[in-house]
């Protein structure tokens, strides 16, 4: 059976067209993919630069933060030890709880037993200033009285009781000072009452206005 | 001759669409990566800028060291000045 040459040529042309179409599609899509990959590469270069900066800048952070924490740990240890040594564990817990409410529940770090101590309500006995002094001075009531004793401050006459906590010179000094001047409607010296005080000024004095303008001009000329 | 025609038809009707489909999927996937990479690059650059202050930690460390040294000196003086707590009876 012989095949006509024209039929062979038609089949060959169809095959050639199909192959060309496939190659063309490959070229178009692969070029598009290459362009997308180039964008990805450029973006990854930026990412690498950014991540490199992060790595470089954060490299010493661990070491430095560890050093800072070590210093702060040492400070906390020293201050806790000093506070407990000077005030006693119970009062130390009470003082800490008085200054930072609720802190007694966590206890002192280097004294695990402190978490189980019921904090005395020192903040109700001493004023805040006294608490500060109690942490600092010999005059602190915690060094002069037993915390297990009665409350040192009478809440109904707290000022006098608070003053009694201090040495004699601090109690008696206010009584020796001269009285403050009396002011008000019952004061022995009454000053002239003017109705225009406190009201807006009706007219700006010409001299004052000129002076204000001159001073404003002078200020604007200054460098 | 018939097989040749069948081959042409398969090439044009099956292989060509499959090739187009696969390449289209690859192109879509590649293009979908681009915005993600760009957003990651922007985030990394911003994170790098946020860490510019990390160098100040050196100053913080020095300040902490000096502060704790001062506190230690002060605490030592207080330890000498103040009386110890009287143990509860």
What does this structure look like?
The complex is a heterodimer of chains A (223) and B (89). Chain A is mainly α and 223 residues long. Chain A is 63% helix and 0% strand. The longest helix of chain A is centred in the N-terminal third of the chain and has 54 residues, at 5-58. Chain A starts with a helix and ends with a helix. In chain A, 14% of the residues are buried. Chain B is rod-shaped and about 115 Å long. Chain B has two helices and no strands. The chains are: A mainly alpha (223), B mainly alpha (89).
Low-confidence stretches of chain A: 137-144, 219-223
Number of helices of chain A: 9
Main β sheet profile of chain A: none
Structural class of chain B: mainly alpha
Give the N-terminus to C-terminus distance of chain B in angstroms: 119 Å
Largest sheet of chain B: none
Helix share bin of chain A: 55-70%
Shape of chain A: elongated
List the helices and strands and how they pair.
The complex is a heterodimer of chains A (about 220) and B (about 90).
Chain A: H1 5-58, H2 61-87, H3 89-99, H4 122-125, H5 128-136, H6 141-144, H7 158-164, H8 168-176, H9 206-221
Chain B: H1 2-50, H2 57-81
